[in-house]
Write a structure and sequence with these properties.
mainly beta, 1 helix, binds zinc ion
Length: 76
């Protein structure tokens, strides 16, 4: 894990480009790669932004030590 990794992201709410440290992100993985997404709180407008995470983003966030949640079906 690399300490101090930062990511530049676009806020879909205020459309500002913001830079946040890895610990401000949350990665959520579903049963399929298409369900993967990441979320962060925008420091500019305070919006809770949620975006789809492609394989490369998942890899980068995981490598940076971002907290990961894995969704599993309740009624399997
Ligand atoms: Zn924003």
């Amino acid at each position: 894990m690399e300490a101090g990794t930062r990511f530049k992201v676009y806020c879909s709410q205020c459309r500002e480009k913001v830079e946040l440290p890895a610990e401000d992100f949350r990665l959520t993985l579903g049963r399929t790669p298409e369900q993967a997404h990441y979320s962060f709180g925008c420091p500019r407008c305070g919006a809770a932004v949620r975006k789809a995470a492609g394989a490369k983003i998942v890899e980068a966030l995981t490598a940076a030590g971002v907290r990961t949640m894995r969704l599993v079906p309740v009624d399997g």
